[in-house]
Every structure is written in structure tokens, then in C-alpha cells.
Write the C-alpha cells for this entry.
Amino acid sequence: MRLINQTCLVTGSSSGIGKAIARKMAMEGANVIINYYSDKTSAEELAHDLEEISVDNEMMVVKGDVSKQKDVDNIFRKTIDKFGALDILVSNSGIQIDAPSHELTLEQWNRVIDVNLTGQFLCAQAAIKCFLHQGIRPNISKAMGKIIHMSSVHEIIPWAGHLNYASSKGGLLMLMKSLALEYGKDKIRVNSIAPGAIQTAINEEVWSSKKGMENLLKLIPYGRIGQVEDVANAAAWLASDESDYVTGTTIFVDGGMSCYPGFLDNG
Ligand code: BGC
């Protein structure tokens, strides 16, 4: 119970990694805002489940597209109206729209950049405004606020056929570091988590076939695909005061995928 009396917004938490993070934050005692884009039923079911396992903490479900200023304003307004303060933003929403780069349309490029990078900017900006307005909340957390960006191993690993996605994550690396630099003096901590292959719907096409899984495992020194809880555990630590001296960095939760596994028996 490391997050008692704290409020945590998790964007894109009706499924996958976001859902596991919402669950973990609730188990740590936080109030959780479950943001979804299209799957209302799943977001509401999650809120219901989490309320059952909660003690004094409460859940709230809010619809919104993180790439739209109006929606972001609404998500944050509802958060403050209900809980009075925000302590943790887990900016998790992200999408993949893949195509060979010479066929990628401007629309596909824009949509991924809008959600994965502009959405991260809009949510981080709104969270920082809340944190600065609230100030440090004594006995709640040592930090004025915590932002956790959901990045990817592809913030450093180039990815053929995924130009928009890899570019958005590469951009996110500098967004995270620049914000950590700018707001460190205010005791706002800004970090990223870079998951490798985590078994969710986003990469189901890869892990659902035997051949796909075999090929994938060649990229993972630790020898297994990741689970959403692997990422959620890192997020809870980054949100808690246990990581109070950690800011401006990326925690790779990737089973070693970013250690150049091609060099295991080559080079
Ligand atoms: C992507 C997944 C992929 C993983 C490793 C993630 O960021 O969303 O589709 O399996 O990176 O390549």
C-alpha cells in the first residue's frame, strides 16, 4: 500500500498494459481514473472490479481521446472535481498503425504521432499545471507529482515498417527528459517505462502463432514474452517514494530485448 491518499490517472486503461497498471495502482491504495477511448464496457467492468478490492480508494471512468485538447481538459477537470488533486499521471495511451514506409499515408503517420506523442505532451502539460497549482502535499508524497510515460524499446531500437511508431517513441524520449530537466526544481519526477514484447492485443499477430513466438523469443535474452504485470510492477515503483531520486530516465522492462540479442553468438 505505497500510494494511499494519492490519485492516479491512467490513460488508455480499458485494456492491456494500462488496465494492469490501473489495477496495481488501486491495489497500492490510490484513487484511479480509468480513461478509455472506445471500450466503455471494459472500462466500467474494470472500475467495478477494482472497487471490490479497494479499501478507502475510489475509481472513476472518463472517456477521452488524449490527442484532443478538449478531451484532455475534460479528463483533468473531472479528476480534480472528484478527487481535488492529482498525484500521478501514467500516460499510457498508444497505438500502432503499421505499413512499409514508402506506403505509409500522411493520415497514418499523423494519427500515430497525434496519440503517441502529442497526446503525451497534452496530458503531461495538464498534469504539470495541476501539480504546480497544488504544490507539495505533505504526508502524501515527497514529490510534487509524478509522470510516467509509456514508451517502448523502440525509443532506441529502430523498427522497419513501423516508422510512425518508432518516431513517436524516439520523440517521447526527449519529451520525457526535457520535462524532467525543466521541472526537477519543482520536485516533479518525469520518467518513462520502455516495455519490450508484452503479451497484449497490440502484438497478438506475432505471439499467437508458433513460428511468430519462436522468432520473437530469439529477440528476448530472458527467454519469455513479457506480461502486463511486469510493466505494472515497475509503474507502481516509479509512482512511489521508493524511487524518489529517479527522474529523467527510462526503465526498460524488456527481458533484455534492448541488449542487441543478435550479438549473442555473432559479431
Ligand atoms: C510494440 C509491440 C512490440 C514490442 C517489441 C512494443 O512497443 O507495441 O508491438 O512487440 O514493442 O518490438
The first strand starts at residue 7 and ends at 10. The mean pLDDT is 98.
